[in-house]
Amino acid sequence: MKQLLLIRHAKSSWANAGQDDFERPLNERGKRDAPLMAQKLIEKKVRPDALISSTAVRALETAAYFAETMGFKKKEVIQVPELYHAPPKIFKEVIQALPDRLSTVAIFAHNPGITDMANELTQIQIDNMPTCSIFGVEAEVKSWKNFLDADKSFLFFYYPKAF
Q1: Which of 38, 39, 141, 153 has most Cβ atoms within 10 angstroms of its Cβ?
Q2: Going by C-beta distance under 8 Å and a sequence separation of 6 or more, which residues neighbour residue 117?
Q3: Which of 13, 8, 108, 103 is nearest to 63 (CA)?
Q4: In what order do the strands lie in the sheet with 152-158?
Q5: CA 146 from centre of chain
Q6: Is-contact 84 50, C-beta < 8 A?
Q7: Which residues form the domain of 108?
């Protein structure tokens, strides 16, 4: 069994209008929502074996909040630069390259690619993954190489305003 959690970065700051998009940090709401959503996963008894993130500041900060809340060290977050504004093709490459020893993986990334990827996984279709939302699916496979072609079951779609 393999479980995939797609997590959009938490709300980012637009306080510095001239700041490069890649460098935007989380705002106060984002700093509040990220640990809250990590705690929701703990309450649902869902714990990733690995946290994989875009290298953009807001995605890494979101992953760091999840790491801290879930008992990971921040340095354990796996950084994948290609996930910055990645289309589904990149997500698929990352997923298929995952080591099979991992059962549950969380990927932190950005819209529109993360919503597009979520919509390719099951029959469940969403218009938009809000900031800090989590889309979970699972498949009865032993290898991540087979995950994308397998029948997947929708597990949940959580987002901060729902709690």
Answers
A1: 38
A2: 6, 88, 91, 92
A3: 108
A4: 78-79, 50-53, 104-109, 2-8, 134-139, 152-158
A5: 20
A6: no
A7: 2-12+20-162
pLDDT by position in tens, the chain (length 163): 999 999 999 999 887 877 888 999 999 999 999 999 999 999 999 999 999 999 999 999 999 999 999 999 888 999 999 999 999 999 999 999 999 999 999 999 999 999 999 999 999 999 999 999 999 999 999 999 999 999 999 999 999 988 7
Q: Measured between alpha carbons, how far is 102 from 15 in angstroms, rounded to an integer?
A: 38
The tokens 């979520």 sit on which residue? 118
Q: Residue 104: give its domain's CATH number.
A: 3.40.50.1240
Domain count, the chain: 1
- Distance from C-alpha of 42 to C-alpha of 139, rounded to nearest angstrom: 20
DSSP code, position 56: S
The amino acid at residue 23 is E
Tokens 């875009």, residue located: 54
115: its two tokens:
């919503």
Residue tagged 């699972």 (tokens): 138
Specify whether the CB–CB gap between 132 and 62 falls below 8 A: yes
- The pTM score is 0.96
